[in-house]
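Bit of a strange request maybe. I'm writing a small parser for structure token strings and I need a real example to test against, not something I typed by hand. Could someone generate the tokens for this chain?
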Amino acid sequence: MRVVVKDQGNMCFKAETEKSEFTINCPQISPVEYFLGGIITCSATDIILMPKKQGFEVTDLEVTGDAVRSDDMPRKFDKLHLSYVFNSTAQDEVALRWVMASLETYCSTIATIRSDVNIEFSLIYNGRVAADHKELVSGTSTVQNLDELDGCCPS
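Reply from user aminoacidic:
Good idea to test on real output. This should exercise your parser:
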């Protein structure tokens, strides 16, 4: 993968990829907002594609990312909460697996930051809360009591 960024003046840049090009307008949207948007879009594409491969359609998808940044330079993300809202005809557990698979396995942008950022998620599926502020198991996010994980059997 290669991206070339060229200064266009007035804090605007042209990004050229192997497939396309786009403008990065820093006075309107900061590079960190573009980065967060890329993280969210990476996971959102998983939430569309995984169900499709399983014969399901996801509708009304909305993913919101709330990031908390360090006060110290370089102001990296300390915490990221992703809220997923969507509908489908799959069972609730299947929808939860789609989100977990995106966050734990498939989304390369999240995998890039996961070891340094406490990541948690919520899921509203078919209008019901299916998960609320669940932390990821990998990276620096940990769940101390594995019995609390959905799908784990108590000992």
